[in-house]
Specification:
- The protein is α/β, with parallel strands linked by helices and 432 residues long.
- It folds into two domains: 178 residues, Immunoglobulin-like; 239 residues, 3-Layer(aba) Sandwich (Aminopeptidase).
- A hairpin with a 2-residue loop joins strand 2 and strand 3.
- The longest helix has 20 residues.
- The protein is elongated.
- The structure holds zinc ion.
- The site of zinc ion (ZN) has 4 residues, from loops.
Length: 432
């Protein structure tokens, strides 16, 4: 999701919408009266749902989603429905995380619109609810903006659709309601493409491979997939081959100052460091870089914060399952199984033997040191109280894996698997 530059008038419209929201909430101004008239019987329906009215700042603006809700109410000037209007989807609707507990919607103003109806549907629910009704007269300009103030900062996902009420020459009718809407979420994920350009190169003339380059490829694809398919926003520790954080760069951020990568997740809900795995030299009696596909398994290393966070473990399980499945489908792993953990007591303590095993499934693991996290990157995320993972997607010491990476099929497959895992862990839906 890309931030669209909007005219200054949009900012004014946003202020207007927020002011209107507050005014309507107290029901004490002329503007609020306009909203009550527009809302009609639907306003009563909304008000009768006390929980909605309390928790959703804009719900008492009503909407009139059912045609019969307009029966028997006072007509007001500018009411498209009363004068025989229709609802049409607005153009260029954009939704974006605005803060930990708010989502901003922007769309193009429709020249003949009298009002805009904003509807939203929570992930996992079939019900569209009225979120706001904005008088077009109060949202003049080329663009309109409205901010959904969520009831908490807990990660949540909604689908949004906005329709404009416009006059119609064909009598009263409504647009169909089958618009699937656009997903958005307040979830903020910090992605850390492991290492930096040129790191962990494998001497392979046929399929040249470099972990520090490939992790960036996966991370950029994951960022885009999360935004486009799930409406999830990411911050990145790097978007190029080089990394700079806190005055440090490449080598230091892969060594003595590596915890700064994890600390970059401050204010995020989740930290994920993306990697590909290796093994001890000549593991399993095979040359170091000629390992069998049976060694390929995702290992999700959790930090101490994630270890005691039920939802974080659900995300870790789902990422592991999705990556294992994707690897098996691509033929770079012998099987697609992953062992999910049902609680912190089932976290596997990482070991070389497990890492290099050709018979065990991948699972969620932990590696402690001195009462904290062994890996500096995970310690960094723990320092800022953020659940964090290192995702070891699979072994780059397997020739088939390097071949899939060189052919370009692996990075998008793993990125989609990671995104599906994150979404499943939070109970989010994919856009239709
Ligand atoms: Zn690595």
């Amino acid at each position: 999701m890309k931030k669209m530059p909007l005219p200054a008038l949009v900012a004014a419209a946003l202020v207007a919408a927020v002011v209107l929201g507050v005014a309507a909430g107290f029901g004490a101004t002329g503007v609020a009266r306009t909203f009550e008239q527009l809302a009609g019987a639907a306003g009563e329906k909304s008000a009768s749902n006390e929980k909605d009215a309390r928790t959703h700042a804009a719900s008492d603006q009503g909407s009139g989603t059912a045609p019969e809700a307009h029966d028997g109410r006072e007509k007001s000037e500018g009411d498209a429905m009363a004068s025989g209007g229709e609802l049409v989807n607005v153009e260029n609707l954009q939704v974006e995380r605005a803060s930990a507990s708010s989502i901003e919607l922007t769309w193009d103003a429709a020249g003949n619109a009298t009002a805009y109806e904003v509807e939203r549907r929570a992930a996992g629910s079939d019900t569209w609810e009225a979120a706001a009704r904005i008088d077009a007269a109060d949202a003049a300009g080329t663009g309109v903006a409205w901010t959904d103030e969520l009831d908490s900062a807990e990660p949540q996902q909604y689908f949004y659709r906005v329709r404009a009420a416009v006059p119609s020459a064909q009598g009263e009718k409504r647009a169909s309601s089958d618009d699937a809407g656009i997903p958005a979420s307040n979830l903020l994920v910090c992605l850390d493409p492991g290492h930096y350009a040129g790191c962990n190169e494998v001497p392979d003339a046929e399929s040249p491979y470099c972990e520090g380059d490939f992790t960036l490829e996966v991370a950029l694809a994951l960022r885009d997939e999360l935004a486009e398919t799930y409406g999830v926003t990411c911050v990145m520790t790097r978007e190029t081959g080089s990394i700079t954080l806190g005055g440090m760069s490449d080598e230091a951020l892969d060594n003595t100052a590596i915890q700064l990568r994890g600390e970059a997740a401050a204010d995020c809900d989740l930290f994920i460091s993306l990697h590909t795995n290796a093994n001890l030299d000549n593991a399993n009696g095979a040359p170091t870089f000629e390992q069998p596909t049976s060694i390929t398994k995702p290992i999700v290393l959790a930090n101490t914060v994630a270890a005691s966070d039920e939802r974080a473990l659900a995300v870790a399980n789902a990422i592991g399952e999705e990556v294992a499945d994707a690897s098996a489908r691509l033929g770079i792993a012998r099987k697609g199984a992953f062992d999910p953990v049902r609680g912190p007591q089932e976290l596997r303590t990482w070991s070389d033997a497990f890492n290099d095993s050709t018979t065990e499934n991948g699972t969620v693991s932990i590696r402690r040191w001195n009462g904290g996290d062994y890996y500096g990157v995970l310690r960094g995320a723990a320092n800022v109280s953020v659940p964090g993972f290192i995702v070891e997607h699979g072994h780059h010491t397997v020739p088939e894996m390097r071949q899939a990476a060189a052919e370009g099929t692996l990075a998008p497959a793993w990125a989609e698997a990671d995104a599906r895992g994150i979404a499943r862990g939070y109970g989010f839906e994919a856009a239709q």
